[in-house]
Inverse folding.
């Protein structure tokens, strides 16, 4: 019984130090860095990495290619080069108060935004 009480007191002290002070922040960061290094090493040894495959852009291109003019097709190709350009397009031209794209027609812009 005495051992459980001592263990509870130690646990309470650690909880207090973790939540109320900055005393344990540095040691915790060091341990997390060690775990991250070990995880990176295991990942590099196995050579496997998880990659998310997003086919929405490819499906969009095949769906809408008949509706687009050549200028619109080139603009869609330039927009879909990377995820960053897609996100920028969504931020600028998709939504209820978005501005109109200079190349896409209003219907095509709405369709592209709906598919993304």
């Amino acid at each position: 019984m005495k051992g459980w009480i001592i263990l509870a007191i130690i646990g309470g002290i650690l909880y207090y130090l973790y939540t109320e002070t900055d005393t344990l922040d540095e040691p915790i960061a060091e341990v997390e860095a060690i775990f991250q290094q070990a995880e990176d090493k295991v990942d590099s040894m196995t050579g496997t990495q998880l990659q998310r495959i997003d086919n929405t852009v490819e499906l969009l291109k095949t769906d809408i290619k008949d509706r687009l003019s050549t200028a619109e097709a080139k603009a869609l190709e330039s927009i879909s080069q990377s995820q960053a350009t897609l996100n920028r397009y969504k931020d600028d031209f998709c939504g209820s108060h978005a501005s109109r794209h200079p190349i896409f027609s209003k219907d095509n812009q709405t369709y592209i935004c709906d598919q993304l």
Summary: The mean pLDDT is 80. Helices lie at 2-20, 25-46, 56-64, 70-79, 83-93, 106-115.
